Amino acid sequence: MYLAGQPDEYENNWKKEFKKLENFEFYDWESDSDQTSPDTFFLDDLKAVKNSDILVANPGMAPSEATWVEIGYFLANNTKNPGDSCSRLIVVWKNERLPMWSIEFIKKAGKVVCSVEMAIEELKKHCN
Q: Please, what is the end-to-end C-alpha distance for the chain in angstroms?
């Protein structure tokens, strides 16, 4: 599972809750790649996205350009046709995130939830 999105320090250590789940291997760009330059982390992160079965994204409220690249790459590698939805993509979209019109676009890509807790519950349902 690839954990995309804001660093723990900006999003209340959101990744720690996922890492408590059993029967999953996690890739967390904060700890599993060399973040010293785009030349290292961009390649490491995209390889991990490509090799992941599930992507959970938490773009938070701050700009999240890298997260959207990762989501798009995962979607392209895990769907057959443009416009297909991927049930293994879970995006945490907080209710206060703007612009609201873009949520309809994101809903077409995968499962959208409004909290980390809901993402964990969705993941549990998906894996049963």
A: 16
pTM for this model (two decimals) = 0.92
| Integer Cα distance of 115 and 22 in angstroms | 20
CATH number at residue 13: 3.40.50.450
For a pLDDT cut of 70, what percent of the chain falls above it? 98
Quote the number of domains for the chain.
Answer: 1
The two tokens of residue 104 are: 């309809």
The whole-number pLDDT of residue 23 equals 87
**Does residue 41 have a pLDDT over 90?**
no
Q: For residue 3, which of 52, 75, 40 has the smallest C-alpha distance?
A: 52
Which two tokens mark 10?
Answer: 């900006």
Query: Do the beta carbons of residue 123 and residue 56 sit within 8 Å?
Result: yes
Q: Are 70 and 37 in contact (CB under 8 A)?
A: no
DSSP code, position 79: -
Rounded distance between C-alpha atoms, residue 35 and residue 49, angstroms = 16
